[in-house]
Amino acid sequence: xxxxxxxxxxxxxxxxxxxHFSANGxxxxxxxxxxxxxxVYDLGMADINDGSGPNSIYQDMYVNHELNAxxxxxxxxxxxxxxxxxxxxxxxxxxxxxxxxxxxxxxxVDMLATDQYGSQILRSLSQSNGTMRKEITERVPNYPHLMExxxxxxxxxxxxxxxxxxxxxxxxxxxxxxxQDKLLSLAVDNQGSNSFQRLIKHLKKxxxxxxxxxSSLSTIFSELVIHRTGRHVIKQCLNLLGMSQTRNxxxxxxxxxxxxxxxxxxxNKLRGHYTDLSSKKGGSHVVEKCITYSQKGMKYAVEEFLExxxxxxxxxxxxxxxxxxxxxxxxxxxxxxxxxxxxxxALL
Length: 348
Hints:
It comes from Escallonia herrerae. This protein is mainly alpha-helical. It has 3 domains: 1-129, no CATH class; 142-240; 269-348, no CATH class. It is 70% helix and 0% strand.
């Protein structure tokens, strides 16, 4: 048997869905829950309470009492704020700033976010109005908890869609404040790992915020790389490889782990970019490590350098590129004498 609170939340969830899919938001004008005899109870929703309909939910004194606490009323879950709150719940398309804040002030966002029907309600509300979305984002007290919760993770993923840089920073700040044990627990959890991967995708155009997250993840890379779930978080970081300083930091940490699978993945993904990276401060460090830790990386980089003699000469004189060329000469002299001969000859 569904708990009374869960039933009440399910009623609200269905009312919101009805407003979206029925004629012109008729529920917005009904005094939902205010009157036990209201005709709104006879709208063909008998299935929501094991066949007895929402009217019996309202008449259940335990439900009346518990939902009453959310609306500060005395005679029903919506009587505390009357029809205005009822309209707000039933017609999310008509929210204004005042009603949005009024509704959220009466709801326990943290409790709703981790409840099956409560999560559906918050997702519907955040989708309906920019003000409501912003209010919900700011009122979630614990995003890491949402990330690993079965229902909360759905709300977390919805909030990532169209997030502003400030909203992303708020989320990442909470993650960055976790200790290493909690961060690792979150990243290797099935729901948590999926949430991390989605978050990383949304940080593509926010390098400063991405840097905050990768800095935190770098403290547990060794543990993540050997975990079957956690390694997907690192792989998602690798999928965002580019030439930014932020991602260079991530790549260097991964290369230092000397995990052959990940190292080869990085070296292969950087093909065509070795020359350009070599002339940049952060990028040159990445190329040096590719040459040092991977024979494939050494081969790819040197072949790219040899494709254009003029470019190779310029790299040899570049303030960062010259260190890469020195590293390539040392590595090929030990690992591949033929490549060493070709590289040395091209530099003459």
